[in-house]
Amino acid sequence: MVTPGPESILRDTKLPRHLRAAAQKVVDGERLTPADGLMLYEEASLGYLGALANHVRERMHGDRTFFNRNFHVEPTNVCLYTCTFCSYSRRMKKREDGWEYTMDEMLDIVKQYDGKPVTEVHIVGGVLPQYDVPFYTELFRQIKAHRPELHIKALTPVEYHYIFKKAKISYEDGMRLMKEAGLDSMPGGGAEIFADEIRDQIAGGKCSGEQWLRIHEIWHELGGRSNATMLYGHIENYGHRIDHLEKLRALQDKTGGFQTYIPLKFRNENNELSHLPESTVIEDLRNYAIGRLYLDNFDHVKAYWPMIGRTTAQLSLAFGVDDLDGTIDDTTRIYSMAGGEQHPAMSTEDLVKMIRAVGRQPIERDTLYGIIEDFTDVEFASDKEYRGYTALPVV
Ligand code: V47
Ligand code: SF4
Predict the structure, then answer these.
(1) Is the pTM of this model over 0.80?
(2) Is the pLDDT assigned to residue 369 strictly greater than 80?
(3) 191 CA to centre of ligand 2 in angstroms
């Protein structure tokens, strides 16, 4: 795809010297400092950030845009924690209105995908006492017994911290048990904002930022891979965002175990922070771009379309994003309850065409970024159906 490169920025003598110097660092593959990152958040325009982030994205991946075929199992939408941004937490008072799946019900969801070409089950939801170490290890075992090749991407340090504490076992022993039971990788949720002063206000009581990072570190040391998120656009400031990115980058330097960074835009429906306005699309795109530029040791930046919407997800592909999650098949409620897509399902054809429509190459991947199929030139059955105007013969 031909998009404006960073040359115009480097030559622009009207641009402040420090912005040109940061652009030069990016072009030279030099690392941005926390001060650079903060300056970008505070001063850089959308055009500047887009040109640089796209340069990095294309240097790493060209036009390749990854996606996977997955579905979610959300064990429950009730939670004993009270994160103010979350529409699940309010349900504890009216627990009977929510769902709390049994093991058999979760296995039934998995079985609904028998024979379908999904490669990953993403398991995440609320925290409740009945979902403990024996429950989850048994669940993972039963999923693997039923469909061994299905990749289990499950639970976050929020659940792990809670269930290991309850079982009185160390993080190390706990994560080893999960691995033995069939856990393949860890999703990036529960990270929110690491800085205590913000975390205590929006996600008080659940694992701290330090504990979140430690559990990922242990998982990486066991040879596992995981993702990382940042929930932005609520009460945090740019300094907190850079602090968050800096901590992710530092851990990645140590372990190399993160695959993907996924910024999560705060959605304001049905939660205690509904009075806060949502971030603008411009801010969302700036945030993707800065993530791409700052996290020089992360291979991928992913847009989660059920939360950000389809159009912004397409736009994000020109602002550093190289991965879209996923076909999902209407199996998550976290975002529809908070103001995102009401029915988050997309066929492979829809997703592929969404990527092609903005001039990129759709590549189906598995969870660990093994390439399954290049969809660049794949024709779909519906392409052959003629949907245009047919002139009738004049008689
Ligand atoms: O941890 C909850 C966030 C996360 C809201 O790793 C909200 O591949 C915005 O982590 N507005 C769960 N965000 C989802 C998640 C995820 C999603 C897709 C892919 C992957 C991956 C991970 O959702 C939670 C929380 O940070 N969240 N409520 C809200 N109102
Ligand atoms: Fe529970 Fe997670 Fe929602 Fe917090 S974000 S209330 S831990 S489901």
Answers:
(1) yes
(2) yes
(3) 11
The side-by-side arrangement of strands in the sheet containing 64-67 is 70-73, 120-123, 151-154, 185-186, 225-232, 258-265, 300-304, 323-325, 64-67, 361-365, 371-374
Rounded Cα–Cα distance for residues 291 and 283 (Å): 12
Between CA 264 and CA 271, with CA 265 as vertex, the angle to 5 degrees is 105
Ligand 1 in reach of 267 Cβ (< 6 A): yes
Atom nearest to 156 CA in ligand 2: 2
Question: Tens of pLDDT along 249-298?
Answer: 999 999 999 999 999 999 999 899 999 999 999 999 999 999 999 999 99
Alpha carbon of 359 to ligand 1 centroid (Å): 28
All structural domains of the chain: 64-374 (3.20.20.70)
Q: Is 192 in the pocket of ligand 1 (CB under 6 A)?
A: yes
- Is pLDDT at 38 greater than 80 in this prediction? yes
Q: Which ligand is nearest to the CA of 185?
A: 1
Nearest to 216 by CA among 251, 173, 176, 264: 251
Question: From the CA of 189, how far away is ligand 2's center (Å)?
Answer: 10
Task: Compute how many other C-beta atoms are within 10 angstroms of the C-beta atom of residue 47.
Answer: 11
Ligand 2 in contact with 126 (CB < 6 A)? yes
